[in-house]
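Section 3.1 - Work completed
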Amino acid sequence: MTVQVANLLEAFESLPPEERRAFTAEFLLRLLPFDSGPLDDEETVHAADSLFALGFDSPVGFR
């Protein structure tokens, strides 16, 4: 992860909940036309492992 991305994440985490929701909605709207192309199984497993490590595997783990 670059320093720039880490700074963006830190700024996001400092926002109040309503601003986080507004940012997330806008960010996701901008991603919709994105096509990463086909993912192979190894890439999918790596992405899932990364999400689980962040706590996305349980409702209370999501920040």
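Second construct:
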Amino acid sequence: MQVKNLEQSVPELFQVANKKYLQSEQAIEIIKQNIGVIPVANTAEYRVIWLDVGDFPYREWKFRYATQNLIEKQELGDCFLANRLLFTHYLISKK
């Protein structure tokens, strides 16, 4: 049995996010305004996909399945693509 990666499981997430690349300043404002925006995937282009998951209960050990279930149950929320350096900024700000 071959395990699917997140891009294979929910290709619409990647398709929608790839159409909405944000500069770091724009992305930071969205993240600050929406507590449910989290990084959910890396792309081959060294970018990070961010998704507004609201208050969906995530469990790290089944992250891929939780993301797939969220999109299937609640539809694809606001998502965007940003430079990977923004992810580093995000991690530092959470400390």
